[in-house]
Amino acid sequence: MAQNEAGVALVAGGAGFIGSHLCRALVDQGYEVLCLDNLQTARPSNLRLLEALPNFTFVEADIVNPLPQAVLERADRITRIYNLACAASPPQYQADPEHTMLTNVVGTNHLLRLAEKTGARFLLTSTSEVYGDPEVHPQAEGYRGWVSCTGPRACYDEGKRAAEALTFDYARMNRAEVRVARIFNTYGPQMHPDDGRVVSNLICQALSGRDITVYGDGSQTRSFCYVSDMVDALMRLMESDINPMEPVNLGNPTEFTVNELLEKVLVATGVEGRVTYNPLPQDDPRRRRPDISRAKAVLGWEPTVPLEDGLARTSAWFAEELGVELAQPEMQEPLRARA
Amino acid sequence: MAQNEAGVALVAGGAGFIGSHLCRALVDQGYEVLCLDNLQTARPSNLRLLEALPNFTFVEADIVNPLPQAVLERADRITRIYNLACAASPPQYQADPEHTMLTNVVGTNHLLRLAEKTGARFLLTSTSEVYGDPEVHPQAEGYRGWVSCTGPRACYDEGKRAAEALTFDYARMNRAEVRVARIFNTYGPQMHPDDGRVVSNLICQALSGRDITVYGDGSQTRSFCYVSDMVDALMRLMESDINPMEPVNLGNPTEFTVNELLEKVLVATGVEGRVTYNPLPQDDPRRRRPDISRAKAVLGWEPTVPLEDGLARTSAWFAEELGVELAQPEMQEPLRARA
Question: Which residues form the NAD-dependent epimerase/dehydratase domain (chains A, B) (predicted)?
């Protein structure tokens, strides 16, 4: 790698969905990027896209273990550490809950120690899951959440809360300069088709002609942020001079029901889908929407990509991935989901 | 150690306040006791008391590290694992918040892996702190709490929530047989005089003739369980056939304000104290009281030692420790605290 002026940005989880977009944007901004990923959920095709980039190095590593030699070798040039490492969809993070918890606590701690040692700035990607199944809408950062620490989502939700606690303690003890983002639902190209998240589920089911599955009655709401908006926000947060003790919600505050999302997916894919309604999984939040006042005020940021546009781009990408020809959405009338 | 029929009970944190009482009770019940403690907060005098017991072995070890040889040597005879390891008072657990978090997550995980490997039953001592600064009174186990994951108590509160999540995941995955106790304020002989907890603070200040410090205006309430009641509850919970996915509140539901406690301490110590009121620390809960319906129903347990009796025994013990002669409480009239 050439020795760029911006130095090295370490991206843990950089081969994942948001991580791979972030790596590309960091390269574009002049960083050398060192991407660590255990390839637990990352798609090989994401990695192929990344490995074609200049100033990009991939190392297969699990941050639960001591950091690899490639990190130690570059330690004096690392200026930014982004921690995006953790499976984020319930079927994936529940497959090995012990590993999910250790990724968030031990893995985050390894990266924080690196930040302490190198003086690099550290950004934790936390999650809207720290709010659990919230009792207030929208959620501002001061809301303490309604999280079950005994349920099947706890390994992730409580793991992220523990990772936040650890990160803020490094800041409180002046051990590291930190930023904490609470990421709400994000979607876009390079999502995993099988990760069980609602956007990818609906698009892939529609494109593959399978029955479309909605959990619950579809009246639960979500907000969906397109990935380019999210990456922009993460980089702004990292470079901002925000009070490091303040977590920042990042997401799109425009709220849609799952049924509304479904309708837009059917338009974007040009598919007439058959819908089946399944019971809600345990602890699935009924509703979640970010209050992004802090991000607006401190980062000058808000999402810019409308859901229709983002779904069109995402559907086009999934269609190519799955080898499906996409009907021209202009040619189609919006279709009603059938119960 | 003789090879007792009950087998070996491992007690992590066994040299601490509750731990040392538990070790003694387990020896009394016929267990060989293997006590691990890093001596971070344990008093050497507790250890001296314990080391006089038969069938008792102490090993200085920190459960954040891989378990010591003494554990591995006895692995095939370990039948019970009690995890009481973690500094529990804010000044102590805040001194090294990273270590507090790792004790709860990595340390608990080491013990859970031992339980998985040996088939021993595992009991986690969680805490009323998982309820944070609660919005409902009293707190039943289904209450999800009001905990800040960004504040200075988070290393402990979120650490314990994470430890619970991990423990319940071992049960959910059928990896270990577990029990989770949520311990509310407990007091008694062998408390640390300087741990910043309200009972020991008040008694020690009264006995040493210092000004007595109350944080806030003293109207915040607490419930106080005498240590013999708590140890009885922990052992009943361990031996019960409760649904392992259910945490159990253990504590005394009788509520006192800190000012009422102060008055009883002045009676128990026979001291006329000067009281100064200091600001409440950040995130200090205003009020907390256990709903112990589950413990009553499943364990047939409730506290039996009245606060006056417990304070008398505790004051007598502290007086001996501090080399102070205790005035006869019968001789004294209750004294009013002065603002």
Answer: 9-251
Query: How confident is the model at residue B192, as a pLDDT?
Result: 86
List % helix, strand, coil for chain B (3-state, nearest 5).
40, 20, 40
Residue ranges and CATH numbers for the domains of chain A are: 8-187+226-250 (3.40.50.720)
Count other Cβ atoms within 10 Å, centred on residue B158: 34
pLDDT at A193: 84
Is residue A335 scored above 60 in pLDDT?
Answer: no
Q: How far apart are CA B56 and CA B201, in angstroms?
A: 31
Q: What are the C-alpha distances in Å from A310 to residues A227, A264, B174, B287?
A: 9, 10, 42, 48
Q: Which stretch of DSSP H or E encloses residue B198?
A: helix B198-207
A337 has pLDDT over 60: no
Interface size A-B, in CB pairs within 8 Å, comes to: 121
A150·B97 Cβ contact <8 A: no
How far is B58 from B150, CA to CA, in rounded Å?
A: 36
pLDDT score at B3: 60
Whole-number pLDDT of residue A186? 95
Q: How far apart are the first and last CA of chain A?
A: 55
Give mean pLDDT, residues A309-314.
Answer: 97
**Which is the catalytic residue, given A156, A170, A187, A226?**
A156
Gap between the terminal Cα atoms of chain B: 55
**Contact criterion met (CB below 8 Å) for A27 and A98:** no
Mean pLDDT (whole number) for B221-232: 95
Q: Give the model's pLDDT for residue A274.
A: 87
Segment A29-80, tens digit of pLDDT: 999 999 999 999 888 888 899 999 999 999 999 999 999 999 999 999 999 9
Burial class of residue B44 (count of CB atoms within 10 Å of its CB; 0-12, 13-18, 19+): exposed
User: Using the beta-carbon criterion (under 8 Å), do B162 and A152 form an inter-chain contact?
Assistant: no
In this complex, the residue of B148, B165, B245 whose CB is nearest that of residue A158 is B165
Which of B111, B155, B156, B158 to mutate to probe the A interface, most A CBs <10 Å? B158
